[in-house]
């Protein structure tokens, strides 16, 4: 019986400052199987797999590979033992070619690197698995899906017997995800094993042989796929039944508030910026923006809030032309911004909650006089906001970077929504949050919507967009492929548009 | 301009450029691994003084070179410990090391100011090579350290661009997390190249005190370490271009010197300023070009690496 076990992780415990990320976790992988590792964000999946792949060292617990106890001190040792991981944030050198990335750290290529030979090997290897990659391309030229394939090839090249994929579908369209599943199924026919990290129930049902569920850092159950259903998985994952999402009525939309006309903007890199994007968001409307990373989502948000200058077109707010206004002027026009990178650009990590909360307010009279800030008034102001979003904080002065993702986001929202914004631009507002925190954030956005705010919601999660938006626009290579009312936005259709199809073509097919 | 004058200028450009070249090569390797070293000036001074002291004491310039390598290397080892292990701010540690090296070399070198050195490096004829018209006197009538640099430059170029070690080095400087995940030890690579970089800076210093001057003077590097730092950017982290750049700087230096000797009526202050003005111009030009083409600086330059950091 133990013969068929490829990996056996026992009683794995890992602490980070302030968090118990893994608490006596148990996990077994058999040869030739696909094991889904299911759990909510923050339940410790990535941590557990980073331990298995040698990146982190566990505080306690034992790991056996093919019956032998191992203790990896580095990813290199794990790779030698046949374990390869594709991290959520790809670990690639963008300026290198695919081949260079693949042979990096490997001794097989010889001292002076026979690149031609390696490129041939990579081409053969990837064809064998149906993974299309061009070994000579530079990483920065590739799409996210291609980059993911490079990561997989990298591990296969090293002869991985077990491939760990950390939320691989988060960056893929439904079509691309299906292709990926084909690849991993093919791996199992060759006797290789795959661990698929996910928090999506349907993925488990679609590809996994077995599933291990993590909740709050603990392994709560392991099931055969054939013996569970989505409902039970959800219960195990969350420890309670899901509240069926109430299908929200479409609101009555008012006047157009935010309008973009033929807006073009450059991007930082060689990817598409924005070309001739026109859209309009009305009072009380949530406009969802879908698109694969690198197709202009971030550029769109930054153009609206004044962080990216336009090379063409215009932006109007309630009829006033605000094109190329500075971020501060845009704020004064009533625009709030919830950026993708909440700790980097949303909040100041080393300042406390009070200072972060008054960041947009301190210039106004009321918190002080002239250049001086009245700390007492500031504290009262901050406390009011914190209360309004229901965050429990131990210290108001402690650097906010110590807070959990959910609390960070709530503090950011408290600040951004306090100003009663006319327009809200929210980028991945629930990324990395657990279900409760995500739900709270969604409620706050819906509340603003019913107060008449015009909201642009940019997300990588199609489900989130379908749940909240009134209309959904799709960006592809910087162009808006079209805007669909949510009632007509089937996931398949939106997925195809994310790959560059026009809405009409989709209908026809 | 006579051909003779041109030959003298070019030949002096090479000797004047060589100390900068060694230092720039060292800085280049250090930065390729992702560590910024602003301590070059200090490391050069320590190299210059330790090289001089040992050469005088042992009467063997090669032992002086060895001492300079060790001196520069030890300084760099401190830098590596502070920046790689302790993950300190690299700008601050580099500046501190320059101050430290300036003070230390001044202190150690005090008794040696004005002391003559008998066995300094002297031009060595390379036979046929030195006899080639024009080429010979420009390139092949120098001392052994210059010839050494002729070898070091292509070797480093080959190492960086054509070998697995170079691939590892570049990956560590661009994206340490990726190198680490594939089993390249980021710490080892950084320690190695930071130290090697310091050794080369020390060698650059020793070239001044054992071949170019050859004597010990307090602060004798006179900002060449800083020129080397700037030069690495000009060279877009490529040893061949670093060589070219060093000789251009050497040439400006040499020209200033000659012009003075020939009594050309340009104020000597201005001539001395030339290399530094040129440095600033180069920096302005190159940064603008680099921004436009996205060429250049290693992605992780200046950023400490911590595996468990998010
Ligand atoms: N490198 C780290 N440093 C500090 N805390 C971390 C680190 N990685 C993860 N955590 C924390 O550990 C917990 C589990 O995180 P993670 O393993 O990423 O969960 P999952 O992958 O299931 O979403 C979270 O609370 C997270 O904030
Ligand atoms: Mg994760």
TrEMBL record, chain A:
Keywords on record: ATP-binding, Cell membrane, Membrane, Nucleotide-binding, Repeat, Translocase, Transport
Bilayer-crossing regions: none
InterPro entries: AAA+_ATPase, ABC_carbohydrate_import_ATPase, ABC_transporter-like_ATP-bd, ABC_transporter-like_CS, P-loop_NTPase
SUPFAM superfamilies named in the record: P-loop containing nucleoside triphosphate hydrolases
Cellular localization per UniProt: Cell membrane
Membrane topology: Peripheral membrane protein
Keyword match GTP-binding: no
Pfam families: ABC_tran
GO terms of molecular function: ATP binding; ATP hydrolysis activity
This protein's record includes keyword Transport: yes
One GO cellular component term: plasma membrane
Domain of life of the organism encoding this protein: Bacteria
Primary localization class, coarse: membrane
All residue ranges annotated as the ABC transporter domain in the record: 7-241, 258-502
Protein known as: Nucleoside ABC transporter ATP-binding protein
Organism: Desulforamulus aeronauticus DSM 10349
From TrEMBL, chain B:
Protein name in the entry: Nucleoside ABC transporter membrane protein
The keyword NADP is annotated on this UniProt entry: no
Main location: membrane
Localization: Cell membrane
Source organism phylogeny: Bacteria, Bacillati, Bacillota, Clostridia, Eubacteriales
Transmembrane helix in keyword set: yes
Keywords, ordered alphabetically: Cell membrane, Membrane, Transmembrane, Transmembrane helix
Organism: Desulforamulus aeronauticus DSM 10349
Entries under Gene3D superfamilies matching the protein: ABC transporter involved in vitamin B12 uptake, BtuC
Membrane-crossing segments per the record: 6-26, 38-56, 62-84, 91-108, 145-161, 191-213, 225-249, 261-286
Lipid bilayer topology: Multi-pass membrane protein
UniProt GO molecular function: transmembrane transporter activity
GO cellular component labels: plasma membrane
Database matches in CDD domains: TM_PBP1_transp_TpRbsC_like (cd06580)
Residues in coiled coil: none
């Amino acid at each position: 019986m133990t013969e068929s076990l490829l990996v056996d992780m026992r009683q794995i415990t890992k602490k980070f400052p302030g968090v118990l990320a893994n608490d006596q976790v148990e996990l077994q992988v058999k040869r030739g199987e696909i094991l889904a590792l299911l759990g909510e964000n923050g339940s410790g999946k990535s941590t557990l797999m980073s331990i298995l792949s040698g990146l982190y060292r566990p505080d306690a617990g034992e790991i056996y590979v093919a019956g032998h106890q191992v203790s990896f001190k580095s990813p290199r040792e794990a790779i030698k033992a046949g374990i390869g991981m594709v991290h959520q944030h790809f670990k690639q050198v963008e300026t290198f070619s695919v081949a260079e990335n693949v042979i990096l750290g490997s001794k097989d290529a010889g001292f002076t690197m026979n690149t031609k030979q390696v490129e041939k090997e990579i081409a053969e290897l990837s064809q064998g698995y149906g993974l299309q990659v061009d070994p000579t391309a530079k990483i920065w030229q590739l799409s996210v899906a291609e980059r993911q394939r490079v990561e997989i090839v990298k591990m296969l090249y090293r002869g991985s017997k077990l491939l760990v994929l950390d939320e691989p579908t988060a960056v893929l369209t439904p079509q691309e995800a299906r292709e990926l599943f084909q690849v991993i199924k093919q791996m199992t026919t060759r006797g290789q094993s795959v661990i698929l990290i996910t928090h999506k129930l349907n993925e488990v049902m679609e590809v996994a042989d077995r599933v291990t569920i993590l909740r709050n850092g603990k392994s709560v159950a392991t099931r055969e796929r054939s013996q569970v259903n989505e409902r039970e998985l959800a219960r195990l994952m969350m420890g309670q039944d899901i509240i069926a999402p109430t299908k929200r009525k479409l609101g009555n939309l008012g006047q157009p508030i935010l309008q973009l006309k033929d807006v073009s903007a450059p991007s930082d890199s060689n990817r598409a910026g924005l070309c001739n994007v026109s859209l309009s968001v009305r009072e009380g409307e949530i406009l969802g923006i879908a698109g694969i990373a690198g197709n202009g989502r971030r550029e769109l948000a930054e153009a609206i809030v004044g962080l990216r200058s336009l090379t063409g077109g215009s932006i109007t707010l309630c009829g006033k032309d605000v094109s190329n206004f500075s971020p501060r002027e845009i704020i004064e026009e009533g625009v709030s911004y919830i950026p993708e990178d909440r700790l980097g650009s949303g909040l100041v990590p080393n300042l406390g909650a009070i200072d972060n909360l008054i960041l947009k307010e301190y210039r106004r009279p009321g918190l002080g006089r002239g250049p001086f800030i009245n700390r007492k008034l500031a504290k009262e102001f901050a406390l009011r906001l914190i209360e309004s979003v229901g965050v429990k904080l131990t210290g108001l002065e402690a650097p906010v970077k110590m807070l959990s993702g959910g609390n960070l986001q709530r503090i950011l929202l408290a600040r951004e929504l306090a100003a009663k914004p006319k327009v809200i631009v929210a980028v991945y507002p629930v990324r990395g949050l657990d279900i409760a925190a995500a739900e709270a954030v969604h409620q706050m956005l819906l509340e603003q919507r019913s107060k008449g705010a015009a909201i642009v919601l940019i997300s990588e999660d199609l489900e989130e967009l379908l749940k909240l938006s009134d209309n959904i626009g799709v960006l592809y290579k910087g162009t808006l492929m079209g805007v669909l009312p949510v009632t007509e936005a089937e996931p398949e259709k939106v997925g195809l548009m994310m790959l560059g199809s026009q809405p009409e073509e989709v209908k026809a097919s | 301009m006579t051909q003779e004058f041109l030959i003298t200028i070019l030949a002096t450009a090479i000797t004047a450029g060589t100390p900068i070249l060694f230092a720039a090569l060292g800085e280049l390797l250090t930065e390729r691994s992702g560590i910024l070293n602003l301590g070059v000036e200090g490391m050069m001074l320590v190299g210059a003084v330790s090289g001089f002291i040992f050469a005088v004491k042992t009467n063997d310039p090669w032992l002086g070179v060895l001492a300079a390598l060790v001196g520069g290397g030890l300084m760099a080892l401190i830098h590596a410990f502070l920046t790689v292990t302790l993950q300190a701010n690299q700008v601050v540690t580099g500046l501190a090391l320059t101050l430290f090296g300036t003070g230390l070399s001044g202190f150690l070198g005090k008794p040696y100011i004005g002391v003559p050195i008998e066995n300094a490096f002297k031009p060595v004829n390379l036979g046929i090579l030195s006899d080639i018209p024009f080429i010979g006197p420009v390139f092949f009538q120098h001392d052994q350290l210059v010839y050494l640099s002729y070898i070091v430059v292509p070797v480093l170029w080959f190492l960086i661009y054509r070998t697995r070690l170079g691939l590892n080095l570049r990956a560590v400087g661009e994206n340490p997390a990726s190198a680490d995940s594939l089993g390249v030890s980021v710490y080892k690579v950084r320690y190695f190249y930071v130290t090697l970089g310091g050794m080369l800076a020390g060698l650059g210093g020793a070239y001044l005190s054992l071949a170019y001057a050859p004597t010990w003077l307090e602060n004798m590097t006179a900002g060449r370490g800083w020129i080397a730092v700037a030069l690495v950017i000009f060279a877009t982290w490529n040893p061949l271009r670093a060589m070219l750049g060093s000789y251009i700087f050497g040439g400006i230096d040499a020209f200033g010197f000659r012009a003075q000797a020939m009594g050309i009526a340009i104020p000597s202050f201005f001539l001395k300023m030339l290399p530094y003005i040129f440095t600033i111009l180069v920096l302005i030009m190159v940064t603008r070009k680099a921004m436009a083409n996205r060429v250049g600086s290693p992605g992780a330059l200046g950023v400490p690496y911590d595996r468990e950091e998010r």
